[in-house]
Amino acid sequence: MSVSPFLVRIVECLPDCPAIVFSEFGEVLLRREAGPGRYRQVLVDPVARQVLLIFMN
What we know:
alpha+beta; 4 strands
């Protein structure tokens, strides 16, 4: 399964933030590692049925 272009664009626009994209089945589709974050933002692409978690320091 490929990552939604919508979610890829968001991850690319936030290069300093760790991010994880999950499929509807909980599979990790994309992960960008960085230091531990304290704040979490959750975005959902209902068409692709994918979830993006963004961690911000």
